[in-house]
Amino acid sequence: MGLIVVMALGLALIWMLLTSQVSGQSFIVGFSLSLAVLLLFRPVQGRVNWRRLPGQLLALLYYLAVLYRDIFLSGLDTARRALSPDMRLNP
User: Fold this and answer.
1) pTM summary value
2) Backbone angles phi and psi of 46, in degrees to 5
3) Cβ atoms within 10 Å, residue 11
4) Confidence bin at 66 (pLDDT 50/70/90)
5) Is the pLDDT of residue 90 over 70?
6) Rg (CA), the chain
7) Are 2 and 45 contacting, i.e. CB atoms less than 8 angstroms apart?
8) Residues 49, 20: Cα–Cα separation, whole Å
9) Which of 12, 53, 77, 88 falls 20 to 30 Å from 41 in CA-CA distance?
10) DSSP 3-state assignment of 23?
11) Please, what is the Cα angle at 51 between 50 and 54, to 5 degrees?
12) DSSP 44
């Protein structure tokens, strides 16, 4: 139960940052919502397999590199299509 309260405190602080309202009332709302969600969906306390961690971090970095590349390429493709003079629109 103590871990859930600590997690709710952190989530309440994130709530205050996201809503741009740094006040006691905003903290209470964020803490209440965080506590309710954490009590509904109890976090699983698993053990960290330290031997697999380096491989998982490398896989994460590879995934992020591919994701950023694809986002960049799709942005270029969208810009090319939007700025092309022969764009035919038939609504």
Assistant:
1) 0.50
2) -95, 165
3) 17
4) very high
5) no
6) 22
7) no
8) 37
9) 53
10) coil
11) 85
12) P
DSSP 8-state assignment for residue 50: T
The CA distance from 6 to 9, in Å, is 5
Measured in degrees and rounded to the nearest 5, phi and psi for residue 42 equal -60, 125
pLDDT surpassing 90 at residue 42: no
Query: What per-residue confidence (pLDDT) applies to 28?
Result: 93
Tokens 């700025």 locate to 83
Q: What end-to-end distance do the CA atoms of the chain give, in Å?
A: 57
Tokens representing 15 are 């709530």
Q: Are the C-beta atoms of residues 9 and 28 closer than 8 Å to each other?
A: no
Cα separation of 86 and 15, whole Å?
A: 47
Between 83 and 31, residue with greater pLDDT: 31
CB neighbours of residue 39 within 10 Å: 11
Distance CA 36, CA 67 (A): 33
Do the beta carbons of residue 16 and residue 30 sit within 8 Å? yes
**Residues 87, 81 contacting (CB under 8 angstroms):** yes
